[in-house]
Design brief:
alpha+beta; 60s Ribosomal Protein L30, Chain: A; Phosphoribosyl-aminoimidazole Synthetase, Chain A, domain 2; seven-stranded mixed β-sheet; 13 strands; globular; binds magnesium ion
Length: about 350
């Protein structure tokens, strides 16, 4: 549906793989000293002195992770980069390079891939990363996009999931649940469109949550802010699968327990109103929705004065001994064990 909107339609088979890569990547500029050689040889060459390197990769599959009937290809390219950069920032590192690989069926013309790469280029420029390589191949059906991100971290500043200690505070950036509710609105509009293609939906009341789904941002600013405040978290993770899943990762790997306070979970007013409209519990959405790409981290109590008045952060709980378990303290002050929801993408 998206690719049909293009005026022009150039068959990929007319170009061949190397001409295609050359065409799609010719405007990418090198921004980092550590990039010695980018695209154009058998491999990229990086040179890094003293710093530690972090590497992360993600694979996005059409029909599982994205739906092109409401996800424009430009946004998809942008988001594919963002989800990887978010993992780099979750290590308290700065992202420096990415590689991008795609497998694409012949239903996509060149112009569709140009849109995809325009989104990749936009994200690479905004987040100051070099695109240094990748692969392009054909698929029998649909689109797959895999991005690998590389980052650098100075001294011993990297932060793992396993450093949380009892009495540490549990902190989250931004707000939660918006991307999931944005997806619910988009899915609903897709069904309405099927019945009545002339229906013009008014999506204005959902602008924030739809943007959080279609054009998420990664919290590079938070890594910078923590560094400026001279605050190194004891553990950190990004929220891709939902708050409950990420809290469990930190607790299991740090061998600690946790109390999470329902009333402290940050929610945007649009999330609250859309949850009411869909008759969904907003806490459930924040816990299990995912794709927020906010940072969840723990800090020592001593660092509390550094963040207490900062609107970027919400203190949502505290770390306990492992034997205390992992619990949600509800508004009614009941204690509910937090359980993992599993890999929901495997059910999609
Ligand atoms: Mg992650």
């Amino acid at each position: 549906m998206i690719e049909d909107k293009n005026q022009q339609s150039t068959q990929l088979s007319d170009l061949g793989e190397f001409a295609l890569i050359e065409h799609l990547t010719k405007n990418f500029k090198i921004k980092h000293k550590s990039t010695i050689k980018g695209i154009g040889d058998d491999a990229a060459v990086l040179e890094v002195k003293n710093n530690k390197i972090v590497v992360t990769t993600d694979l996005l599959v059409e029909g599982v992770h994205f739906d092109l009937s409401y996800m424009p290809l430009k946004h998809l390219g942008y988001k594919a980069v963002i989800v990887n950069l978010s993992d780099v920032f979750a290590m308290n590192a700065m992202a420096t390079q990415i590689t991008v690989s795609i497998a694409v069926s012949n239903r996509f013309p060149l112009e569709a891939l140009e849109d995809l790469y325009a989104g990749i280029d936009t994200a690479a420029n905004i987040y100051n990363v070099d695109v240094i390589g990748g692969d392009t191949t054909s698929s029998t059906k649909g689109l797959l996009i895999s991005v690998t991100a590389i980052g650098e971290v100075e001294n011993n500043d990297e932060v793992y999931r396993n450093g949380a200690k009892p009495n540490d505070l549990l902190v989250v950036s931004g707000d939660l649940g918006a991307a999931y509710m944005g997806l619910q609105v988009l899915e609903r509009e897709k069904e309405v469109y099927k019945v009545n293609p002339n229906n013009q939906p008014d999506l204005e009341p959902y602008s924030y949550i739809i943007e959080r789904q279609l054009k998420p941002e990664a919290r590079k600013d938070i890594v910078k802010l923590l560094s400026d405040m001279n605050l190194k978290p004891s553990s950190m993770i990004d929220i891709s699968d939902g708050l409950s899943s990420e809290i469990i990762h930190i607790c299991k790997q740090s061998k600690v327990g946790c109390d999470l306070y329902e009333e402290k979970i940050p929610l945007d007013p649009q999330v609250i109103s859309t949850c009411e409209e869909f008759n969904i519990d907003s806490t459930t959405v924040a816990l299990n929705g995912g794709e927020d790409y906010e940072l969840l981290f723990t800090i020592s109590q001593e660092d509390y004065p550094k963040i207490k008045a900062n609107p970027n952060f919400s203190i949502i709980g505290h770390i306990k001994e492992e034997s205390a378990g992992i619990h949600l303290i509800t508004r009614a002050e009941t204690k509910i064990p937090i359980k993992a929801q599993g890999w929901k993408n495997f059910n999609a």
